[in-house]
Automatic annotation (TrEMBL):
Residues 44-66 are annotated as: Disordered. GO terms for cellular component: extracellular space. It comes from Hymenobacter lapidiphilus. Residues 44-56 have a biased composition (Low complexity). Keywords: Signal. Residues 68-200 form the FAS1 domain. This is Fasciclin domain-containing protein. It comes from the Bacteria. Residues 1-27 form the signal peptide.
């Protein structure tokens, strides 16, 4: 895997826009992070996670074949991802989600954004905070297509901007920095999305 470098201005076009859409042109194209050896990955029961989300989310993301659309298109098609779609546009990253990649996106739901401190989201969506918002969104994105079965307990994966995310696995439950994956392996033609129940905040 070749790391994806984002110049300061391009950062606005790269994220979760892609991130929260969903994709993976190929299940076998595993993300190779800078400081993580993924050659000895344990297999996780990803199928069990497909039943964890609310029924309407399963209908939106599980019943239909999403692999023919890009990350941005898939994200915008799911009502539970509308806040993420709004954030992607405000950060300037939406364009990258349509053609860049492949990316693995850990996409927070609307409820995850609602759980942020009062006023935090409104503040991040202001034009003057575009760079800060882009930094938070890119913290949810890893280069390459990483399926749930490619992750192992205790693993660290590297985000597109060089930060680390910690993977924890217990049974069929996968967590990323403490956020639970509630819908795994949503494929797009330029990556894959794993829906999570919390917004990840870089240190």
């Amino acid at each position: 895997m070749t790391p994806f470098n984002f110049p300061a201005r391009t950062l606005a076009t790269v994220f979760v826009a892609s991130a929260l859409a969903f994709s993976s042109a190929s299940c076998s194209n595993t993300a190779d992070t800078a400081a993580t050896d993924t050659t000895d990955m344990a297999t996780t029961d990803a199928g069990a996670m497909d039943t964890a989300p609310a029924t309407d989310m399963n209908e939106d993301m599980g019943a239909a074949d999403t692999s023919g659309k890009n990350l941005a298109e898939n994200a915008m098609a799911v009502p539970q991802m509308s806040t993420l779609a709004t954030a992607l546009k405000a950060s300037g990253l939406a364009d990258k989600a349509t053609s860049g990649g492949p990316f693995t996106v850990f996409a927070p739901t609307n409820e995850a954004f609602d759980a942020l401190p009062a006023g935090a989201l409104d503040d991040l969506l202001k034009p003057e905070n575009q760079a800060k918002l882009a930094s938070i969104l890119t913290y949810h994105v890893v280069s390459g297509s990483v399926m749930a079965a490619d992750l192992k307990d205790g693993q660290e994966v590297t985000t597109v901007d060089g930060k680390k995310l910690k993977v924890s696995i217990s049974g069929s439950t996968v967590m990323i920095n403490g956020a639970t994956v509630i819908k795994a392996d949503v494929k797009s033609n330029n990556g894959v999305t794993h829906v999570i129940n919390q917004v990840l905040m870089p240190q």
